[in-house]
Amino acid sequence: MENAAPARFVNAWIFLNDDYLPGTNYYSNDSCYQSLIRNNVYQSVDFLHICFATTMPHSAGAPAYTLTMGEPATPIPAHPGGYTNKDYLQFIIRDARIQNPGIKFIFTLDWGYKPTLSNIFTVPGLTDAQCAAVFARNLAIAIQGYGLDGFDFDWEPPLSGSITAAQMSLLLYAIRQQFNQLEKENKKHYYLIISPVTGDNLDAAPVNDNVDWLNLQLYGGTTPSNYPGVDYNLFAYGAQFEATQPTTDPNFPGLQTAQAAIADNNQQYHFPIYTNWRLNSGNFVFEQQQQVALYRLARAGVQV
C-alpha cells in the first residue's frame, strides 16, 4: 500500500424511516441502531446526514414554509413501540455524541416529493427573493432548534427539476446569509451541502459562493463533468455500501467495499471527502463495517 493525501472528512447518511432487522426498533438489541453503538461506528463518522427532512407550513394555515423531520405516510407511528422519526433523531444525536463528541449532524432534504421546494415560492404577495429569504430564516431556526450543524440538498429528480436555477440561486445565497448570522451568534460554522446526481438547475456561481462541498452520487452515474464551472475542490466522493438488491441479510455485500471506493477515488478523482450511502440498510452489518474501514484507511491516507 502507498500513501495518499489523508481525507479531510469521512461521512455517512442514515435513513430514519428504516428498522432492520425487520420488526426491531431503536432499542432492540439486534437492531441496526444498537449495532452502531455496540461497534463504535459513530467514532468513524465526521458528519452524519440525517434523512430525510421535509418542508411544511410554518404554522397552521400559514403560507410561509419551514423545515421539519420527515415522517413516513404509513405506518403511523413510524416505528415499532410507538416511536417517531423525531424520536429517532433525538436518540441518534444523544448516542452519537456520547461516542463521538465532535460529530456533526446535517439535515438532508428529501428528494422524492416534487412540491417540497416549489411550495416555498408560493407565498402570496412575496417575490421569489423574499420567499427564499423567509424560508432560509425559518430553516436556520429549525436547524438550531434541532441542535444540528447544517443542511444538505439530496439533489435528484423530482426535487432537482421542481424549481428554476434562478430560484435555487436565491435559496443558496439566502441560506448562506442566515448560516453566517448563526455563525456569528454561536461561534461555530454551519454547513451548506448539496448531494447531487444531476447538475440540473445548479449554476456554478451560487454553488461556488455558498456551498461547503458537493457529495457527488457517483453510484448514480454522475461525474464532475456534469457541473461545469463548479470548483473541483468542492467535490466529494459519494460511496455506496448499500446492497444493490433488497435484502434482510445484515452481512450481504453492498455495491462497493471501502477499499474499492478508495481505489476508485485515488485513480479517478482525488476528492478530499467521502460520504457513504448508508449505515442502516438491510445489509447494515456490512455497511457499518465498511464505514469503519473507510474511515481508518481514508483518514490515514492509504492508497489501495
Automatic annotation (TrEMBL):
Where the record annotates domain GH18, the positions are 22-304
User: What terms describe the molecular function in GO for this protein?
Assistant: hydrolase activity, hydrolyzing O-glycosyl compounds
Question: Which keywords are on file for this protein?
Answer: Glycosidase, Hydrolase
What are the GO BP annotations of this UniProt entry?
carbohydrate metabolic process
- Protein family: Belongs to the glycosyl hydrolase 18 family.
Keyword Nucleotide-binding attributed: no
This protein's name: GH18 domain-containing protein
